[in-house]
Amino acid sequence: MRTTVGIIGAGPAGLLLARLLHNAGIDAVVLESHDRAYVERRQRAGILEQGTVDVLRAAGAGRRMDREGLRHDGIELRFDRRRHRVDFPGLTGGRSVMVYAQTEVCKDLIALQLEEGGPLLFEAEALAVEDADTHAPRVRFRHQGREDVLECSWVVGCDGFWGVSRRAFPAGLGQVFERTYPFGWLGILADVAPSHDELVYARHDRGFALLSMRSPSVSRLYLQVPDGTDAGAWGDEEIWDELERRFTTADDWRLERGPITQKSVTPMRSFVHEPMRHGRLFLAGDAAHIVPPTGAKGLNLAVGDVVTFARALVHLEQTGSPELLDSYSETCLRRIWQAERFSYDMTTLLHRLPGATPFEDRLQLARLERITGSRAAETDLAEAYTGFPLDRG
Ligand SMILES: Cc1cc2nc3c(=O)[nH]c(=O)nc-3n(C[C@H](O)[C@H](O)[C@H](O)COP(=O)(O)OP(=O)(O)OC[C@H]3O[C@@H](n4cnc5c(N)ncnc54)[C@H](O)[C@@H]3O)c2cc1C
């Protein structure tokens, strides 16, 4: 099998890249280790930055998002039983975000790829990327019980944190920057209308809580829990009781309860692999970097990477100049480190660190007071939340 761009992974990064290349007339093959139902069901991100929304629309993948997505013009910060709304358009000159689940983005892109695009092979597991530093890189993969080889001009590893692409970098070439946090998020999906029409980020002495949503009738809620927590160990009523405690306000706000349809625990990690290119192999999305979900940046960073790659390859085809491909890693990393910084800031602002001293607790509250009391500090948060531009940090 032969193609111009071999794409490993059909998460948002791989699927969007395939769409962008198709629109530019460049052929590509996508290899995905799981089946279609798994990819379309996996619950993850839900917040699309303004730039991501614009990219999906321009790629012809925004029709259902525009119909069913929920435009959000702000978030609420909650601490000390108080509520503070951050008004995005007012602080950023009109920017907002869209609540539209990653599962739906993937469904839309898969449907488009199967109807109009090149091959998308499910249950095709990449085993290794070979000859990445030559003009003819190859992906060895297994599909329907048989081993095969995909011969490419370029390979893009969009295979997430646990994929094989990163392993093709020679030892000693890559450098890893990493931080793990001693807590995770217990996330639930519940069949109940969201109790607030915007996301609520709550800092509480018992830990962080987040109220989010997937649609007008489905709530997504998270609780900070100790590292290694088993989701099954939490009873449904116990979860609602704890959420209620952490969201408590001084006014008459109420948390609506409903049937919990899914429970899982997500570990929290910051991770960056530099550089993001080795020869003709490029890393994109979670394959190269992870952010804790507090800043809602992971999916948006994946989008930024593949837009940068597609633009660079089109530039090469049109002008013969590899200049943009050569600066791929540097261009992406500028934006990635801004997102790493913001996600770290949001995480340490809102979560209770085990063993935090009273001094640290007071500092956390002082940081929240600063954001809610200073337009400059609040603008900084609003700009970062609604998204960093795709072409610079
Ligand atoms: C609970 C949670 C909440 C989140 N919330 C947000 C949010 O609100 N906003 C946000 O922007 N981000 C959020 N994120 C992060 C976001 O989901 C990820 O950053 C995003 O999925 C990255 O996309 P990707 O395509 O790079 O990787 P992935 O989505 O991980 O896709 C990688 C794909 O590669 C496939 N694959 C792996 N290995 C191989 C192989 N060897 N061969 C072939 N295929 C392979 C996998 O099956 C998978 O389909 C959240 C994440 C979690 C876990």
Spell out the key features of this protein:
393 residues; alpha+beta; FAD/NAD(P)-binding domain; 8-stranded mixed β-sheet; 29% strand; globular; binds flavin-adenine dinucleotide; FAD-bd; 4-hydroxybenzoate 3-monooxygenase; RIFMO-like
Describe the structure.
This protein has 393 residues and is an alpha+beta fold. It has a domain of 232 residues: FAD/NAD(P)-binding domain (3-Layer(bba) Sandwich), CATH 3.50.50.60. The chain is 36% helix and 29% strand. The strands form four sheets. The protein has an eight-stranded mixed β-sheet. A six-stranded mixed β-sheet has the order 8-2-1-12-19-18. A three-stranded antiparallel β-sheet has the order 3-7-4. Strand 1, helix 1 and strand 2 form a beta-alpha-beta unit. Helix 11 crosses helix 12. The protein is globular and about 65 Å long. The relative contact order is 0.17. The site of flavin-adenine dinucleotide (FAD) has 35 residues, from helix 1, strand 9 and helix 8. Keywords: FAD, Flavoprotein.
